[in-house]
Each structure stands twice: as C-alpha cells, then as structure tokens.
Amino acid sequence: MTTQGTQSSDKASSPVHSDASPAKPETLAGDATHLPVTTSPGSSAGQEERGRRNKQLTLFPLTFLIFFEVAGGPYGAEPAVQAGGALFALLGFLVFPFIWAVPESLVTAELSTAMPGNGGYVLWVHTAFGPLAASLMGTWKYACAAAGAAAFPALFSDYLTRVFPAVSGSGGGRAATIVTFNVALTLLSYTGLGVVGWAAVALGVAALSPFVVMVAAAAPKVRPRRWGTTARVKDWKLLLNTLFWNLNGWDSVSTMAGEVDRPGKTLPAALVSAVCIGSVGYLLPLMAATGAVDAPPEAWGDGYFADAAGLIAGKWLKYWIEAGAALSSAGLYSASVSSAAYLLAGMAELGHIPSLFAARAPVFGTPWASITATGAIALGFSFVSFDSIVAVTNFLYGLGMILELAAFLWLRARRPGMPRPYRVPTGAGTAGAAAVCAVPAAFLVAVMAVAGWEVCAASAGFTVVGVVVYYAMALCRARGCVKFGRPEGGEWGLGRL
C-alpha cells in the first residue's frame, strides 16, 4: 500500500475535496494505516513496481468501471415497475441514490483515499477490528462479487436468445455461450485494468446510446398521468431487492484502489461522476418508457425495455437495446471479476490468504492466480438460478456493508488525526458521521429482514466458511505448510489498533 501524496495539492485541484485532515507526523509513526505494503517487503524494486501499477487507472476508465460495478445501464430495472408500478419505481430510483448511493460512495471515497491499497474494505475492517473481522468481510464480499459476476454470462445468453434462438433452453448452445463468454472476458482481465477500463468506456457508450435515442423518441409521446400508475398487488420485497441489486456496489472500486493513479483526486471524482451517470441512466429511460407506453405493471418483466422501445420507435430500436443489454452484461462481468480478483490479491498482500494470490504475471503485472480463481468460481455459479444469486448476494452485501459502516465510524472516533485526502463533510465529531450512516444502515436492515430462511441459511453457511478459512490459514501459517506474505510492520502489517 502506498501513502497519498501532498494533501494540499489534492485539496486545491479536486472539485469534490472537502476538509482534508492535516498530516501530523506524530500520528503517522503509530498509525498502521500508513504502513507500506509491497510485493517484496523492504525492496525498492517492489515499491517501484507498485508505483508503475498505480498508473493503470485514470479518471475516465475508472468512472466507467465503477458504473459497471453498480449499474451498467437501466437493464434489469424493469421488475421495479412490475413490483410497484411506475409511481413507486420512479420514486425508488429518484430517492434511493440520495439515501444509499451518495452516502456509500462518500464513505468509500474517504476510506479509499486514506488507505489506497488493494483489498479496500478488507483493509479498512482489518485496521479497525483486526484480522478475524477482516477475514469474514473478505469471505462475504468475495462470495458476493464472484457469485454476482456469475449472473452476467447467463444474462448475456438470455439476451442473445432473443436474436439467436439456438442458444435458448438448457441445451449445449446455451452452455457453450456461457463458457465462451466467461473464458473470453477472464482472458481480457489478464491484460490489466488499463485495458479493462477502456473496454468499459466503449461498452458503456454502447450500452447507453440506445436509451438516449429512446428517450428522445419517447418525449412527444409521454403522458405524465401514466407515471402515477401503481400495481394492483404490490411486491415490496421484489421492489427493495431490485433497487438494491441495481444500485449497490459503490464500494467495490476500493478493492482496486492500489491500481489508481493519484487516488486522492481520482477516486472521489470518479465516484461522483459514476453516481450521476448511473442515477440518470436509470431514471430518464424509466420516465420515457412508462410515460410513453400504456402498459400495465405486470407486463414489465425482465427485458421489457426492449419491447417498450419497439412500441416507441420500431423493431430496429428494440434490437439495438437487446444488443446493448448483451454488451452491458460483458461490462458488468469484467468489472465484477476485476473487483473480486483484486480483493483476493489485497487479502494476500495483507497475509490473510496464501501469497500465491498476490503473484503478478510477468508481462501484464496482473494477479493471475486471483483472476483465474475468480473466473472459475463465476463459471461454476453461472448455472445457478439468477433469482437465487440476487437474494443471497444482497444479504451478504448487507452484512459486509454494516461492518464497513462500523469501521468508518470506529476510525473517525479512534483515529481522527489519520490523514484523509478526502473527508466526508460531516462536521466535527462522530455525530455527523453517524448521521451519514444511519439511513443506509436502516435500509440494509430492511432488505435483510425480508430475506427468506433459505437465504439466511446460505449466508450463515458463508459466515461459517469465513471463520473456518481464518483459522485454517492461521494453522497453515503456524506450520509453514503454505507461503504467506509478510507486509512491513509485523506479521499482519495492519494489526488491531
């Protein structure tokens, strides 16, 4: 992990900078959050290598990687209309970014710039609560990211079925499509975040462009009274899960913070840009389609945006949106695999898991073992029910976010002098920070409360796995049967403060 450079330059040039904490030499000496973590501890060559890797992600590609970590376009938002009608879907996508996306992205910006190393939220929780809590966090979030990525090859196949029926059903055509999609995009991840990031830019433009056309074509046909339509039987559980699935993940970029160029400036600006693009990218197409098409809420199943576009402008736009949905699935998968892989690499750099997962490929400098493992796990989960994946990953994500918010508050209270190149503007003390976290925490509890017993049982199983992994790794470390990294500053590098 590298420390952020001169704070005054960040504050002067960043439009989103707010109230950076001054660096105090006396706090740096004992502050574990600023201990360097390198691929070869104590080696200047390792530090130089890390410095080169930090230049891979600049503002524009990072913005679109975050966009695909969270949204990827309005594809998948249709069940919100089905669950509550146009009124509640529009209200949800209007309000939810303010009560969830903005607080989550602000917390991510502060902690990522204070500790700009791979592993993200695992690093924060490790610093606040120690290695066991961090191991649990890593297990929850990795399972969430890898299983979540598995949904996108299946979605790609579903969208492709609309154009090529041969890949439909459970036959060999669908399986071949899923495997080819998985392998091709996993291989792309080996080339580095620079390539993946610019690919995300191209995929983002391709995924959003048909909706720009649809909004323009729908404008003369919009009847505002249609926005007040509600479903006869409202499915609040489906509505909450749809909003949560489509607008969570703003903290996922933190696992790649060690690869970001000038993170103190780039991360906050990219998060703000991605929140704006993602929120508008949901709201305007929903307003256009629900206002221009006189369809009952029950018609709004998965993929209905394409049908609505066909009614608004013709079949050509319907096919364009279906093609955009397939490209969006590719961007979502690439971003999810990258985030999960760099989470593993960060955990290995911290000594939580074997150092093999931090090993870098000689040509591209990417964590090849972590990428391979993540691609293989995602491929295995690709044949699981999509609805099951959404429910379990939402619950695991909720567990991780509660721990993440707790780490944010703990570090604000116990390490107020820790240098923060970006600081959430909450005022003095921890009361303001607690207020920022209150609404997201309440929403997390609401989403988790409506989960069925099967989801709770699966999440409990993953939690048990996290505890077992922690003690199994401790045993392996004690016996020396597996090689672990030793970050500078002690066995764990970032112990309990």
UniProtKB/TrEMBL annotation:
Protein keywords: Cell membrane, Membrane, Symport, Transmembrane, Transmembrane helix, Transport
Localization of this protein: Cell membrane
Main location: membrane
Top-rank lineage group of the source organism: Eukaryota
Listed GO MF terms: polyamine transmembrane transporter activity; symporter activity
Cellular component terms per the entry's GO annotation: plasma membrane
Protein's UniProt keywords contain Membrane: yes
UniProt xrefs under InterPro entries: AA/rel_permease1, RMV1-like
Topology of the protein relative to the lipid bilayer: Multi-pass membrane protein
Keyword Cell membrane: yes
Stretches for region Disordered: 1-52
UniProt feature, compositional bias: Polar residues: 1-16, 36-46
One Pfam family linked to the record: AA_permease_2
Spans through the membrane: 57-77, 83-102, 114-134, 196-219, 266-284, 325-345, 357-383, 389-411, 431-451, 457-476
Family: Belongs to the amino acid-polyamine-organocation (APC) superfamily. Polyamine:cation symporter (PHS) (TC 2.A.3.12) family.
PANTHER family the record matches: POLYAMINE TRANSPORTER (PTHR45826:SF27), POLYAMINE TRANSPORTER PUT1 (PTHR45826)
Record protein name field: Polyamine transporter PUT1
Organism: Urochloa decumbens
